[in-house]
Amino acid sequence: MAAKILIVTGDAAESLEVLYPYQRLREEGYDVHIAAPARKKLQFVVHDFEPGFDTYTEKPGYTWPSDLAFAEVDPGQYVALVIPGGRAPEYLRGDPELRKILKSFFDADKPVAQICHGPLLTAAVGALAGRRVTSYPALEIDMQSAGATFQDAEAVVDGTLVSARAWPDHSRWMREFLTVLRAKAPVT
């Protein structure tokens, strides 16, 4: 049986930040499940950069079904966690079931990959204090408020935590995460 990896997300997640790790980790041989507040078809978004805009734009993206609800997740069944960005982390950080899931991964020192606005979730459970991370650059103050040292880099590895700024950093992010996974939770 293949080792399982959990992706936690919801509506308004960045399409590429969910689907790239989903496909890349499956390609590597992991069994990947997507959990959301409920079992449903999720509506992702596309964030892009337009000349003259002070920040990114948002357009409708792909839809994709979640495999299970947060309340159905048994974190002990998973070897690693992926936390995509987009707007989903803004409202998901208040979900008590999700906070239990996140805390269990950090308590067990399992590999965690986070990208873009995903670190808002790890900050919500106090898992960033004393760590080095990156995120979408506009979150630098949020990362510092959570007790982390912010680094503006494609990928930052701090133990089993691997973070990236946004979807343009996917290649480096997944390369670093796979290095951690192969050491801590190889495909079986």
Automatic annotation (TrEMBL):
Gene3D superfamilies: 3.40.50.880. Residues 4-178 form the DJ-1/PfpI domain. PROSITE patterns: PEPTIDASE_C56_PFPI. Belongs to the peptidase C56 family. This is Peptidase. It comes from Streptomyces alboflavus. The gene is pfpI.
